[in-house]
Q: What sequence folds into this?
C-alpha cells in the first residue's frame, strides 16, 4: 500500500490524501488551498484523476472539498462517499467558491469549470449514514463515524484487504470541539493500524466554552451600553449557526433587548436552511429545544439581510452584525470593516481561527492600520477574541482521541508546522511534507 499527501501538510488547507493498493486508488478529501497557498490549486496533481476509483469526503468545508471540481474536470468519474448533509452543503460551498473567484477575478481550481459542472459533480455522490459498515469493492469496507465538527462531518474507518491481510486506516477529518453545540460530540474509534489526524489546534488548549459565552454576553452588553456596533465575522458553516443558537438562548436567559441582529451572508443563510433539513443529526439539547417549539436559529430582533447593506448602515445603534467570511476572505465583512473599523464605538469580535497571513491574523496581532479591499483603514474599534467557539478539538482532546484509537502508526496533518509538530511529538506521529510518499 502506498500513501501520499497532496495538501494540508504543515498547513491547514488543501486536505487530500491518496491511498493506492494493488487494485484500488482512492482519495480522502480533495480540498482547496486557501490564503498564501492558493497558487497550489492551479498546479497539476501528481496523480492522474482519471485513475481515482472513489473519494471519501469527510465534510463540506472548502479546504476539504474545494478541488473536487478540478479532479472532475480532469476526468475523475468515480463515486464520492459522504453523509447527505455533506453533499448538500458541498454543493452550495463549491458554487459560492466559483462565484467568489469570478468576483475577485482570481483563477478557480480549474479554469473551464462552470456552474453546470458543479451541479453534474453532485450526481456522483453516494450518501451514507453514520455507524454501518459498507462494502465498497472486494477489498475495501468503510464506516462513517460522527466527527462532531460541522453538520454531517465524518471520521472514516477504512478496512483494506491486501495480499490476504486486512489493515484498518482511520481518517479523523476535522474533529469537533467537545461539547459541540447543535451537532453531536466526536465519536471515538479503536484499533487503527494507520491513523491520519488533524492538528489545527495541535499546540493549544482552548479556553472553556463558558468563558467564551461570558465574553460574548459581555461584548453584547457593552455594545448596548455604549450604543455601539458589534461586528462578528462568521463562517457560513457551523460558526454562524452556533452563534445564532447562542444568541437565541442568551436573548431569553440574559433578557437582552433593544439591539438588532443582522446576518449578512447569503451563503450562511443557505447553510442555515440546510441545517434545518437535518434535525436528526442534532444533539439532544438542540432536539429538546425544537420539540418545545423553539426555532433555534431565530429570535426577536434578528433579521437575515438579502443584499440590503444600506438597511444595516441605516439601522440605529446599538446593533450586532454577523457577516461572512470568518477568515475575512470574500464575503460581506469587508464592507462593514471599511465602514466601522475606524469607529471607536465599534467592537470587532473574532470567533474563528485566523490562518497565518490573513487579514484577521494581522488584526489579532495588533496591526493598527490595515488594508481592506484596497482601502487603508485605521483601527479604532475594540478588538476582542473568543477561541473556545472553535469547531476543532484542542491539543488535549486530539491527544486523548488519538490514544484511544490505539494506532500502530500516526500521520499528523492539517495544522500549521508548530501545531502539527507539537501534536506529533506527544503521540509519536509523523508530520509529512507536501507530496511525500510512504510505503506499507
Ligand atoms: Zn473543517
A:
Amino acid at each position: 500500500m502506498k500513501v501520499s499527501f497532496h495538501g494540508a501538510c504543515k498547513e491547514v488547507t488543501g486536505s487530500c490524501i491518496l491511498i493506492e493498493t494493488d487494485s484500488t486508488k482512492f482519495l480522502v478529501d480533495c480540498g482547496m488551498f486557501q490564503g498564501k497557498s492558493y497558487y497550489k490549486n492551479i498546479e497539476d496533481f501528481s496523480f492522474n484523476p482519471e485513475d481515482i476509483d472513489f473519494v471519501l469526503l469527510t465534510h463540506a468545508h472548502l479546504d476539504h472539498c474545494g478541488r473536487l471540481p478540478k479532479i472532475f474536470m480532469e476526468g475523475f468519474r468515480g463515486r464520492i462517499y459522504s453523509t447527505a448533509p455533506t453533499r448538500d452543503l458541498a454543493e452550495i460551498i463549491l458554487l459560492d467558491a466559483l462565484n467568489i473567484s469570478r468576483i475577485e477575478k482570481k483563477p478557480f481550481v480549474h479554469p473551464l469549470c462552470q456552474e453546470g459542472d458543479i451541479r453534474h459533480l453532485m450526481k456522483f455522490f453516494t450518501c451514507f449514514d453514520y455507524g454501518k459498515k459498507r462494502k465498497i469493492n472486494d477489498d475495501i469496507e468503510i464506516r462513517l463515524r460522527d466527527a462532531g465538527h460541522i453538520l454531517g462531518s465524518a471520521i472514516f474507518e477504512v478496512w483494506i484487504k491486501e495480499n490476504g491481510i486486512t489493515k484498518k486506516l482511520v481518517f479523523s477529518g476535522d474533529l469537533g470541539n467537545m461539547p459541540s453545540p447543535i451537532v453531536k460530540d466526536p465519536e471515538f474509534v479503536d484499533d487503527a493500524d494507520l491513523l491520519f489526524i488533524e492538528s489545527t489546534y495541535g499546540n493549544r488548549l482552548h479556553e472553556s466554552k463558558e468563558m467564551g459565552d461570558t465574553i460574548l454576553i459581555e461584548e453584547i452588553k457593552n455594545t448596548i451600553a455604549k450604543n455601539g456596533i458589534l461586528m462578528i465575522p462568521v463562517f457560513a458553516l457551523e460558526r454562524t449557526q452556533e452563534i445564532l443558537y447562542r444568541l437565541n438562548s442568551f436573548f431569553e436567559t440574559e433578557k437582552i433587548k433593544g439591539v438588532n441582529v443582522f446576518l449578512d451572508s447569503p451563503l450562511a443563510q443557505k447553510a442555515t436552511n440546510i441545517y434545518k433539513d437535518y434535525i436528526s443529526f442534532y444533539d439532544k439539547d438542540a432536539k429538546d429545544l425544537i420539540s418545545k417549539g423553539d426555532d433555534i436559529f431565530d429570535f426577536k430582533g434578528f433579521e437575515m439581510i438579502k443584499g440590503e447593506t444600506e438597511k444595516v448602515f441605516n439601522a440605529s445603534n446599538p446593533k450586532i452584525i454577523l457577516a461572512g467570511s470568518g477568515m475575512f476572505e470574500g464575503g460581506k465583512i469587508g464592507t462593514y470593516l471599511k465602514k466601522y473599523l475606524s469607529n471607536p464605538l465599534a467592537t470587532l469580535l473574532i470567533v474563528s481561527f485566523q490562518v497565518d497571513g490573513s487579514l484577521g491574523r494581522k488584526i489579532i496581532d495588533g496591526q493598527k492600520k490595515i488594508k481592506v479591499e484596497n482601502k487603508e483603514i485605521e483601527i479604532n474599534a475594540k478588538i476582542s477574541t473568543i477561541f473556545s467557539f472553535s469547531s476543532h478539538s484542542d491539543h488535549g482532546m486530539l491527544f486523548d482521541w488519538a490514544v484511544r484509537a490505539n494506532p500502530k502508526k500516526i500521520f499528523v496533518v492539517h495544522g500549521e508546522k508548530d501545531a502539527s509538530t507539537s501534536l506529533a511529538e506527544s503521540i509519536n506521529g509523523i508530520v509529512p511534507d507536501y507530496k511525500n510518499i510512504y510505503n506499507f
